[in-house]
Amino acid sequence: MLKLLSSAVLSLLFSLGLMPATPERTAALAVTTTTVATHNTLHGEATLKPLADVIGWQEVDTSAGHSKLGALENYDHFRPGENRLDARNSIAISWRKNKYDKTGDGSRLTHGGEAEVTPSRFVNWVVLKNKETGAKLAFINTHYLSGAWNGEHPERQERWRTHNAVVHEVVADLRGRGLPVVLVGDFNRPLSQDIPGMNHLRTAGVDGVPIDQLYVLQGIGTGPAERLEKFGSDHFAYTATVAY
Q1: Residue 20: partners with Cβ closer than 8 Å, 6 or more residues away
Q2: Dist CA 226 CA 230 (whole Å)
Q3: 237 CB-side CA count, 13 A
Q4: pLDDT by residue (tens digit) across 137-193?
Q5: What is the DSSP letter of 198?
Q6: Please, are residues 196 and 183 in contact by the beta-carbon 8 Å criterion?
Q7: Cβ(52)–Cβ(228) under 8 Å?
Q8: 3-state SS assignment for residue 15
Q9: CB–CB of 35/54 below 8 Å?
Q10: Which of 116, 117, 136, 150 is the most buried (most CB within 10 A)?
């Protein structure tokens, strides 16, 4: 509250001409607002919609899915695999190219694949710079293996925990760079995770925790997540707004 009042007082002083509005002070008061989203596309069967400024997709693991992604107008994409159907490309990240420049990216393997169980799993991230304000945002996308917590495949829990540990490491690294961080993905577990420095965004009007989740650096979430339509998938899409 005190910080907000201080900003308001400074803005008033600037407007009255009692304090010079230097570029540094103006930048310090600027706020960048970004919409973010996550959607599991059911192996590309869903209609890929322009859900937000920055979108984390899951199960873009078919040629049809990647063709739909490429046809999404006004977006650039992070697909780090050399071949279109590389497993790490299934968790592509998209952003509005008129609003952001990518200044950094990365992809980490969480665990290898096993036939009839899971493909190799990854954590992908980008650092985006807002073209208007210059503010940077780190956006992380991931997709954990399924079945570890449904009572049928407890042997998969070790892989799930290994994946979770890598997610924690990536979040910690990006936070350590002083960046505001957003984490989205299909967690395949209806339970919010305790990730240091991050808040899980509850979904408005939804009881419990969906397996598709959004986390934001403490202090940058502006409200609960919103559940959208499925758009032809077996998962709902989710979106939220962050300010940093």
Answers
A1: 14
A2: 13
A3: 23
A4: 999 999 999 999 999 999 999 999 999 999 999 999 999 999 999 999 999 999 999
A5: E
A6: no
A7: no
A8: helix
A9: yes
A10: 136
